[in-house]
Amino acid sequence: MRHVIALDVGGTGMKAALIGAGGELLHQARLATGRERGPDAVVGGILDFAAELRAYGDRRFGEPAAAAGVAVPGILDEEHGIAAYSANLGWRDVPLRDLLADRLGGIPVALGHDVRTGGLAEGRIGAGRGADRFLFVPLGTGIAGAIGIGGRVEAGAHGFAGEIGHIVVRPGGTPCPCGQRGCLERYASAAAVSAAWVEAGEDPEADAADCAKAVVSGDPNAVRVWQDAVDALADGLVTALTLLDPRTLIIGGGLAEAGETLFTPLREAVRRRVTFQKLPTLVPAALGDTAGCLGAGLLAWDLLDTTPTTPEEPT
């Protein structure tokens, strides 16, 4: 059976899959990145993991993978297949595409940014399926974005397109590691909500999910913290939709797991802020933590001029 290898490399773990021509997940696996052993060990682990997947697919399906796709965090030179920098993984200027191609017997390899790759999957076969223009915004430790145009995701001239988390929504506000003050991700990421909830006098171990539960129970402190985050997020999103005019706005990441506790006030906050802009459909992400692998698989199939359709359940 014809298939491709897909790898989604995160800060602490790697998710991998073999994906068929119809987009079906034929096999899934997970592995720690081993980042505590240094960047060389991380790269070696990626190469070994990919080789194991290739061998498994060869045994199970009677033929090797036709291509591979890998999604990684940090700064990329996608044109040349170089993982330029990742603070979490500690690497610099790793020619990852060529290293993987050599390890996998010379098959085509695609390298993509983790958020843009997840956004590609959400836009093409997930919550944004059928939309010619979409914006995917995952709310996690930080906030990023993927701009979808005509079935692909825009990287920008220098690979920085979609960094919505660094739109300034509160001028002169909380300092951000990027060097600015008042960035969106300092107010509306899952990490920001967790910090604000702890500062409100809650358990130091409490997080954004605990805050969401307290909102549902009517805790006034939680409602205040949550609404502050929703208002900041709406300010950032309206700036983005004013510039990009997406048809569908897809919200994912840890904060989106709060469901309508987030989406009901967020839709209303965005609606109140628009004037001449067309209000996009605002929906939760659909693919969960499989988005990165599915997107990496799409990148791999795109190298072969074959686009998978709807993903099926794992076998």
How does the overall form come out from the CA principal axes?
Answer: globular
Structural class: alpha/beta
- Unreliable segments of 5+ consecutive residues: 306-315
N-to-C series of helices and strands: EEEHEEEEHEHEEEHHHHEHEH
The radius of gyration over CA amounts to 20 Å
Number of helices: 9
Q: Which features does this protein show?
A:
single chain, 315 residues, alpha/beta, globular
List the helices and strands and how they pair.
Elements: E1 3-9, E2 13-20, E3 25-32, H1 39-61, E4 68-72, E5 75-77, E6 82-85, E7 92-94, H2 96-103, E8 109-113, H3 114-125, E9 133-138, E10 146-149, E11 152-154, H4 185-188, H5 190-199, H6 208-217, H7 220-244, E12 248-252, H8 260-273, E13 281-284, H9 291-303
Helix pairs in contact: 1-2, 3-9, 5-6, 5-7, 6-7, 7-8
